[in-house]
User: Fold this.
Amino acid sequence: MTKPLPGGRAGAQHTSMFFRMLVRAAILRRGRAASALLAMIVAATVTTALLNLFVDVQSKLRREFRNYGANVVVIAKDGKTLPPDALAKVEATVGRDPRAKQSVAVPFAYVVARTSNDQPVVVAGTDLSAVRKLNNWWSVTAWPKQPEEALLGVRASAIVNPQGKSFDLTFHGRTIHLTPAGTVGTGADEDSRIYVSLSDFEAWTGVRASTIEVDVSGPPADVNATIARLAQVLPDADVRPVRQIVEAEARVLGKTRATLLAACILVIATAALCVLATLTGWVLDRRRDFAIMKALGASQRFISGFFAAEAAFLGAFGALLGFGFGIGIAAWIGRTNFHAPVMPRFELFPIVLLGCILIALVSAIAPISALRRVQPAMILKGE
Amino acid sequence: MFVRLVYESFRRQKRSKLLAGAAIALGVTVATAMIAVATDVGDKINRELRSYGANLVVTPQDDTLDVQIAGINLKPPSDGAYLDEADLPKIKGMFWRNNIVGFAPVLPVTVTVNKGTAKNVTLVGTYFAKRLRFGNENFVTGVRTTYPLWKVQGSWPDDDSRDVLIGEQLAAALRAKPGAKINIEGENLQVTGILSTGSTEDNEIVAPLSLAQQMLGKPGVVRKVYVSALTKPEDAFARRDPKTLSPDMYDRWYCSPYAQSIAFQLQEAIPHSHAEQIRQVAQTEGTILTRIKGLMLLVTLAALFASALAVSAAMATTVFERRREVGLMKALGAGGLAVASFFFAEAALLALLGGAAGFAGGSFLAYHAGRWIFDSPINIQPVLLPLILIIAVIVTFAGSATAILRAVKFDPVYALRGEG
Assistant:
């Protein structure tokens, strides 16, 4: 201390006394302090876990919703085919978004071919490995691996090729010899079609892809931005959202989040109440300390400050421990329910910390101001 | 004497009793509301997921191949088998009829539209919101139920009318507007609205079923029926073949609302039909439903835990404040058992009163939360009341047990002198 202030030494003593009291109080009254701390920790844990889940559940659920398949389609106008570089352009556009790592774009080309007994059948050429990623609801017995192998819709298989042997298809006088690899069942149009790889398809028919189905991940704003960008780079094509998929997703997701939010508010309010009750009891319990301090000449400000500091310390400590537990619980819920860990959101820490300290201060200050009006003698006499 | 003690304690210490009771009521409110939401959220989300559209399709058994690309039928319309429209109301006679949200038949017909130049387009006949009757039950079904996200600019046609909807892309190509007339197969029909679905219907004309049947020249037929049903997520048992199951297992399979068993019953209800799940919708909704239900269950556990803790914290505080009373009782010769049973009786009474109030509060909360989030109330079964009350009593006991036992062990001399 270079410039001793009047009463500076007394001030220093004051401070050290303040801290000593804080520490001793925590150690000597372990039982009650521990129960208050426990309530604080539990409240912080529950709050952290729920907030973390609430923030993260959107992306988790959105990933589940992507199982519905493509949410954007690019279709060539008026029954024409798309330019040869369309797929590359789509991939470049979609891939530019760093968040859209899982986005898949799959080209489809269609013709009506005839079987050897003149039965018309729709044949689709596509990127089979990409389809497998995009449409994981397809129930496929075996995916084609070799060239000139075909994936037959369950209906097409029964009618075109009941024996499971290799067969011929003709389109505009050109014939392709295909070996069936397996069947695909979806309950929709795919069941009546035959799927071959796009390279086989183009070599056979000379027809290019007319549709690209794109699975754009991300919130609706990102999807809309991607649609606008796609429309810009592909002026000759129609770029449309699959409304059924996009709107139903928004609806279900919105309701789920609202339910979760309501639940979070309830739980967090209950946890806060629990802390309030415990801490108030803890402070009331110590009215004798309060009375002795007052009797020994401590100022009202000092006492209030002491209890406030104690409460704030308790809140901060509880928040720190609770945050750790809460993140653990959120990660566990993510693992058991979504089979992917919920990422810890450290940006939530200041909120939890502030909330804990605030609730601790409120629950400490309320009984103190009530005790303020009481004569210390009354308390010491035990009345 | 015991009863009087408890009664007087409630009469004289209204404020502290009210506080403890309020804490219990609040805890039970949260618990009740969360239990109600958790038990009902699956059903609610299931209904929301129905906005993805039908999850089952019924086709004729001896069906031919669809030759259809992007909604345009490339096959002569006379080709193919049909189902009988008169069989459709039987869907409401099935075992799982209450799980059928709605169904809509479709009958595609290739028609010529004349607007300057002749153009071939697909006209799909269906129900919009058709009134049907099965037995004594009246119900309304159609695409407005099975596809709630279809949007119409203008108005929906009447099912008995000869008005049509035009898909938005086709409407743009034909420059048709709501209220305009359109020449289909030489007949001038009224366009009541422009339909937007984001799917193949955008390039089609959608008309009442009877109109499509008339254009096809086959009254009373439909090509397919799309069914929207509430189903249970598929598991290994659902995938088993009903023919290979033992009678007991078969009954269990038949009486579970799996997509498979509902499809099986649809096949039974409609003669010469084949029903199948639309895997894109059915499979995915199963996964999502499981995830959301799991999530809500875990959150409910957290809520129950938090409310149990809140109740026990409040109880511990109230008991702790009454050490002097305990001291006085003991000084007057009451045994530990008598004191403990007095406090426990008080706690039980508080728990019952608070629990009942909390049950009412929780039901109210759940009801309004349901209305707010899902536009349909969440109701809690009254049979849950005893269960909730028992839980409230147990939690209150558990919460006050430590404090009561400590108070009982406490030396009355210290307690009375106020040295706690």
Q: What stands out?
A: The two ends of chain B are 28 Å apart (CA to CA). The longest strand of chain B covers residues 100-115. The longest helix of chain B spans residues 279-320.
